[in-house]
Design brief:
12% strand; Nonspecific Lipid-transfer Protein, Chain A; two-stranded antiparallel ribbon; single chain; 292 residues
Length: 292
């Protein structure tokens, strides 16, 4: 996807969020979301801060400072990041007060102005969790934040919402960044576990096929090959993203009929044993890639 298309999508998603909340009752900002520790207003504060940090980071990168700012120190594990974000975004929400939606709109307008004039998408920009990444990758990260948190707010904590279809198409090819951000290593396994994903077939028209190979303390993502997979997972792009980002449990999606799994080792096993194998593999995947 070209940068101009990504920029337009970021602008449209931010505009949709602002318009929906600006026309909603005042108490909508206190409503629940799919983020257990954040109400709608806190999610908006998080998105506002993200746009501000991206703009600052890109400006530093353009000036030749793509590494961490001097004195930068902070949490490095996914659990530490989760704890820090839960606190800092609530504090930022309180600080913004009644100016929240105005600051959100201003932050994304300022970011859009910068993106419109940007020319070198290979420039390195600093991100607290990902380290130095290209300006182009930062676009993908901003799309990720907007698409997922837009769904969080519209679902109201019930899970009854559809993801933005254009956002799904844009986000799916870059979903590996989520594996990188939230992997929680465990003890080294004697034998790797291979998860094979066949994603697509939904109304959003996006597809993706890859293997995630986990050794416990490490993982790789690669194109499927001739080797057998321990668990083969088939689902729509939206189901895959909702499960990957921890909004829907893998096992719950399977029980709801939204996700189909097969194991190469289940031939001849009774249904109860198959269930155990499937659920154990899905539970382990959730433990390794449990989100932020």
């Amino acid at each position: 996807m070209k940068q101009a298309v990504k920029i337009a999508l970021i602008r449209r998603l931010a505009s949709d969020i602002h318009r929906a909340l600006a026309s909603a009752p005042a108490d909508a900002l206190s409503g629940p979301t799919a983020c257990n520790e954040w109400d709608v207003g806190t999610v908006v504060a998080h998105l506002t801060g993200g746009a501000m940090r991206q703009r600052d980071s890109m400006l530093r990168g353009r000036d030749g400072y793509g590494g961490p700012p001097e004195g930068t120190a902070g949490p490095t594990t996914p659990d530490q990041v989760q704890q820090r974000n839960a606190l800092s975004n609530r504090q930022f929400r309180a600080e913004l007060g009644d100016t929240l939606l105005e600051r959100f709109q201003d932050a994304y307008a300022a970011l859009d102005d910068l993106l419109q004039d940007w020319t070198d998408w290979t420039i390195g920009c600093w991100h607290q969790r990902r380290g130095t990444m290209s300006a182009d990758s930062y676009l993908d990260l901003r799309i990720q934040e907007l698409v997922i948190h837009d769904w969080d707010m519209r679902s109201g904590g019930t899970g009854q919402a559809s993801m933005d279809a254009e956002g799904v198409i844009a986000l799916l090819p870059h979903s590996q960044m989520w594996y990188d951000l939230c992997f929680r290593p465990t003890a080294h396994l004697l034998r790797p576990v291979v998860y094979r994903f066949d994603v697509g077939g939904g109304p959003e028209g996006a597809s993706l096929q890859h293997d995630v190979i986990v050794t416990g303390d490490h993982f790789t993502v690669q194109r499927p090959d001739a080797h057998a997979a321990d668990l083969m997972i088939t689902c729509s792009a939206e189901t895959y993203l909702l499960c990957l980002y921890g909004r829907v449990e893998w096992i719950a999606a399977r029980q709801a009929g939204c996700l189909h799994v097969v194991s190469h080792s289940d031939a001849g096993l009774d249904p109860e044993m198959k269930e155990t194998i499937y659920n154990d593999h899905l539970h382990s995947f959730r433990e390794w890639f449990g989100g932020l």
